[in-house]
């Protein structure tokens, strides 16, 4: 596997064929209008947003404990479904995180000689941290009487947003540096999302839960710092 950036027959730039670019621009100007008369893309999107349903719903509690917990929160004027939705989102993302690191480990094991590769043991430790975070969230949801196997709306949206990261890591053509860049995006989102979850837990009176999550946030901060360092080293290696 080539593991460095190199020059080749890339014809995607307009300057590769100025004549064809002019002809393309003329054809675009001469093309018939495809939008309905008097409509704009913004107007069409606005109509779709107005008419659309939301992305799923938070499931009703499936246990007596869940019914009691949710009912008490409702009586106090709270919306426990928001916390459950965000817990479900985090659980889904941590599961994806395990898969991302598994793909990165495979990529690193097959990297070309001379390419920068993060220490495999460190990558395995992070993968295990992500798996532990997944189990922590699973237990948290169960303690609230919620079903951790349910796909909440934010979990669904998170899975869609993560698809590009998974595709990048599992694409056999991508380099270790390119994969680290995708991992960095995941870690940045992970870090910010744990901060948000801690804030939400505190706001809803779950101080013990928030304290548990702070330990996970500390680990995520360490992951983020390591990935930044590895990415800098990988790109620097390619540039020299």
From TrEMBL:
InterPro entries tied to this protein: Ferritin-like (IPR012347), Ferritin-like_diiron (IPR009040), Ferritin-like_SF (IPR009078)
Residue ranges annotated for the Ferritin-like diiron domain, each copy included: 170-240
Regions crossing the membrane: none
Top-level lineage group: Bacteria
Protein name: Ferritin-like domain-containing protein
